[in-house]
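Example record for the data management plan.
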Amino acid sequence: MKIAVVDYGSGNLASASRALALAAERAGIDASVTVTADPAVVGAADRIVLPGQGAFADCAAGLEAVAGMRDAIQTATSGGTPFLGICVGMQLMAERGLEHTVTPGFGWIKGDVAEMPAAGLRLPQMGWNGLDFVPGSHPLLEGLEPGDHVYFVHSYALVQGAPSETIATTDYGGTIPAIVVAGNRAGTQFHVEKSQDVGIRLLSNFLRWAP
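Corresponding structural encoding:
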């Protein structure tokens, strides 16, 4: 299995690639993990992972700055290649980002990315928080339990999304989408690569996933 981690100047590339390698090992999958800014490598991959951290607009601009990358991701995923967006990588799946300015996303999932209300709570949400989901409702959740904790760092979140595209949430001054899925494209608002065994299990599920 060829796993491409997209390098566009944003995201925990080294930790994401290490976590994916460990997830493949635990799942018994013979895999190579490549951190790449080459659209051809991304287009030929069996799995595409898009990390992201920082502002939505900056990440969108960084992706556009890598000639051919956005088109390569669009074409490959339209053809069925499983995709995982991490943190801002997940947010880029939405229709728009509303951080500082209006920035178009991929438009793969319904909704915008807007500042979290989180009345009386500190922003960014930084640290461990529990997941809420229906056990057995999606292959990406296999082996996970409601209440399992994962690691978040974000001030913005998906709003007005489609309930059918949200398979797990967390609570931080209200319900926040934590894992979204639309067809073969999935995303986690939290950092799977920093979420220890729960994150590795989810990555293993992603590598086994046959949407």
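Summary line stored alongside the record: Helices lie at 13-27, 39-43, 56-65, 69-78, 88-91, 196-208.
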